[in-house]
Known about the structure:
The strands form two sheets. This protein has a seven-stranded parallel sheet, sandwiched between helices. It has a three-stranded antiparallel sheet with strand order 4-8-7. It has helices at 9-26, 40-52, 80-87, 109-122, 159-164, 166-169, 183-187, 202-210, 243-249, and strands at 2-6, 31-34, 62-65, 67-69, 99-100, 128-131, 153-156, 177-180, 191-196, 228-233. By secondary structure, it is α/β, with parallel strands linked by helices. 2-amino-2-deoxy-6-O-phosphono-alpha-D-glucopyranose binds next to loops.
Amino acid sequence: MKVLILPDSAAATERAAGIVAAFLASEAKPVLGLATGETMRPLYARLVAMWAAGQVDFVPVTTFNLDEYVGVPADHPASFAAFMRANLFDHVTINPARINLLAGDAPDPDAEALRYEEAITAAGGIGLQVLGIGRNGHVAFNEPTSSLASRTRVKTLTEATRRANAAAFAPDPVPRFAITLGIGTILAAKRCLLIATGQSKADAVARMIEGPLGADCPATALQMHRQTTVVLDEEAASNLRLRDYYETVHPAGAEARLP
Ligand code: GLP
């Protein structure tokens, strides 16, 4: 894992946006895996600004979002589809035919999960998967005890995750189920970029990077991925035992260089 520690969340966002932009520029038909959540809002805002400045092009990009709530249609304001429109898709020129989202209101969620896996394969696989991390160590909606080999499927959300996402649905309850890419699906991406900011993520980040591999903290599965970059601010990095080492290898989040 490449661990990049930036002084604050703005710098972490800038570094992560630069990694996404470099990926988009490096491929003729980039396939980009996208995440939702509060951590992603500033990232998408920065990418929109880079697009407006002519620094990134979304026209050739195919996107796949990580997850969606079961029973929630794309036009529901708390859907991840609505989040993506509000934060990215409505602000850039992108081919709607290449935007892939899980249909939360699909009549058969299991069949929808299978369809999505097949669509990822048909697109040639995900080239760069952007990820956040839940406070309990979940990635996408792979809650603790998810199989580390899992593929896209329906998962039951923990009460902690439902509480963390309550504001979007208030006064209605958060759905109990979601369709999510599996850990195995995420590990099949060629590259992963996980972004975490703020003190509330410090414990999950330390477990993910330095803890024992295990389903109790699904994000630890990224230890088995060969090209994962983790971009952190100082608060999210604050529980790392080997923080000095990461900062020696990548001062202020810079690339490693031989003397
Ligand atoms: C949600 C999403 C994840 C996201 C996580 C953290 O449950 N399904 O993809 O990484 O929460 O979200 P936030 O960035 O709001 O802390």
